[in-house]
Specification:
Layout (H helix, E strand, L loop, with lengths): L1 E5 L3 H14 L4 E5 L2 H11 L3 E5 L7 H11 L4 E6 L4 H10 L3 E4 L4 H49 L7 H8 L7 E7 L7 H11 L3 E3 L6 E7 L6 H13 L11 E4 L9 H11 L9 E3 L8 H19 L3 H17 L4 H21 L16 H26 L4 H11 L6 H8 L3 H12 L3 H16 L7 H7 L5 H12 L3 H12 L1
Parallel strand pairs: 1-2, 1-3, 3-4, 4-5, 9-10
Antiparallel strand pairs: 6-8, 6-9, 7-8
Helix pairs in contact: 2-3, 5-6, 10-11, 10-12, 11-12, 11-13, 12-13, 15-16
């Protein structure tokens, strides 16, 4: 630690230095002979503790202390004075002095007071370090939660921590207007991720997703007092300014339409993806509403097809699904629609197929074309390939589903409720999609997965409470809760009575 001794008397400074050096050999001791010099030294050396003489020619110790604290609010002061008056002490305490010494002071008094203040400084420094570390961990955790929220919203992933809880942690207003932008980045742009995130942070409230396959989705919440296009354009330009070379190829930003809540966020994301299909335009961002539409006949056929597909997929009539989609592609071709525009519309149809699969409990990634189509032959070929992949998922899923049933899943959870069972782990164990398991609980059992697991644990806990030798803490850990306080909260919510009161009742009845 650095200690500054301020006194206009050389003998006083030397005496204090000698006492402190012998008693606290690890200190770095510096000196100043007046208030003005003390201010300059403190600005340069930033001492942890200053022993300040109050009465000095020119600037008083109180005046110097007041100026030093402006730049160094954490510095501690011990005021040293030969004047034992209330007014001096009142002013010193008002300015933030920690303690004071009277001239002349006994060596033991000096050692005791300085030692006490040094210990206080040490504790505060440790506390600040701990707080900074906690803040850093908190910020990292919130960043992970943010990415997880975007993943669950846009990609239909099911995680152990439910989306609603994560949204609540982040304090997101679910009914706020929002839109999605999707950033297409050149290969090897991982280093730009943090730069983009920082830019986005400065332009308003947004949720930044994970960078995957050179695509970075961002959910942007609307800013009051500025139009949607102005907000999106400004954000797009700020993001593009991250490029070291303004002419670097591969950068493009697609912008989806505004929707009234997070429930519709996936629509805006799909629109943003469609807007990124053609990245060769001079302006490196595009709004979905600005994409040229096709003629009315083709548009009507696409809408009709999107209505017919769900029933065909549910009944596994994939040949008809393919025939109908290929017929619409031929209609686009016959009407002279640009192949790239046709690809954009057919992609919307394929997303309808993927959405139906997810609703059935089949974990299907959002289908994407691997390239910008140049002609209709390419469009037909890759469309058939993407349909084939989704058909395979559908077939494999129902083959596995035949060997599984609800009772098998329930039995396993009941027997293993005391373990940390996630939906993903249960899915692997049963060979089923986590989405399907979550869905089957709601539809077949009438409760969601977490509620059923909680019921199993509470029922197990109630049985264990009949044993008077078991404490509530032991029971909590045994049924799968690592935090007894959280267990008590969940138990009281489920049973309408605290665990301790319930155990007393059970044991009382038993007697």
């Amino acid at each position: 630690m650095r200690v500054l001794i301020v006194d206009d008397e050389h003998v006083e400074r030397e005496g204090m230095r000698a006492i402190l050096s012998r008693s606290f050999p690890s200190l770095s001791i510096i000196e100043a002979r007046n208030g003005k010099m003390a201010i300059d030294v403190a600005r340069e050396r930033k001492p942890d503790l200053i022993l300040m003489d109050i009465k000095m020619p020119g600037m008083s110790g109180l005046e110097a202390m007041e100026q030093i604290r402006e730049d160094n609010p954490d510095t501690k002061f011990i005021m040293v004075t030969a004047y034992d008056t209330f007014e001096y002490m009142r002013q010193a305490i008002k300015l933030g002095a920690t303690d004071y010494l009277l001239k002349p002071s006994k060596i033991n008094d000096i050692i005791d007071i300085v030692g006490k203040v040094l210990k206080q400084i040490m504790l505060e420094q440790k506390s600040r370090i701990s707080t900074k570390r906690q803040q850093h961990i908190f910020q990292k955790t919130m960043s992970v939660i943010e990415t997880d929220v975007v993943t669950q919203l846009l990609f239909d992933h099911v995680h152990e921590v439910h989306l609603d809880m994560l949204v609540e942690i982040l304090g997101i207003e679910t009914k706020a207007e929002m839109f999605v932008i999707n950033i297409h980045l050149p290969a090897g742009s991982e280093d730009n991720y943090s730069k983009i995130k920082e830019v986005v942070r400065q332009t308003g409230y947004s949720l930044v997703g994970a960078l995957h396959s050179n695509q970075l989705p961002i959910i942007v919440f609307r800013t009051n007092g500025i139009s949607y296009r102005s907000q999106a354009t400004s954000l797009a330009r700020e993001i593009l300014s991250v490029r070291e070379n303004p002419n670097e190829e591969g950068w493009f930003i697609g912008i989806g339409k505004v929707y009234p809540s997070l429930d519709d966020v996936r629509k805006s994301y799909q629109e943003a993806l469609i807007s990124c299909l053609d990245i060769t335009t001079p302006v490196k961002y595009k709004f979905y509403p600005d994409i040229p539409g096709d003629n009315y006949e083709s548009n009507d056929q696409v809408k009709l097809l999107q209505k017919e597909l769900p029933d065909l997929i549910r009944f596994g009539q994939w040949e008809q699904v393919q025939v109908k989609i290929i017929n619409v592609i031929r209609l686009f071709e016959n009407n002279g629609i640009n192949p790239l525009q046709a690809q954009q519309r057919i992609l919307e149809v394929l997303w309808t197929v993927s959405k139906v699969l997810n609703e059935l409990g089949i974990d299907s990634d959002t289908p994407l074309y691997s390239y910008r189509t140049l002609d209709y032959r390419q469009l037909r070929s890759e469309t058939v390939s993407l349909l084939g992949q989704m058909k395979q998922l559908h077939t494999e899923y129902y083959q596995r589903l035949e060997a599984d049933n609800v009772e098998q899943i329930k039995r396993y959870i009941i027997e293993h409720s005391h373990e940390d069972i996630s939906l993903e782990a249960l899915g692997k164990r049963m060979g089923l999609s986590p989405i399907y398991i979550s869905k089957i609980f709601k539809e077949k059992i009438g409760v969601n997965y977490i509620d059923f697991l909680t019921e199993c644990r509470i029922e197990r806990a109630k049985k264990l409470m009949a044993d008077p030798n078991r404490s509530i803490k032991e029971i909590a850990i045994e049924v799968g809760y690592h935090e007894p306080n959280y267990f008590s909260k969940v138990f009281k919510k489920m049973v309408r009575i605290s665990p301790s009161d319930y155990q007393k009742t059970v044991l009382g009845k038993k007697d």
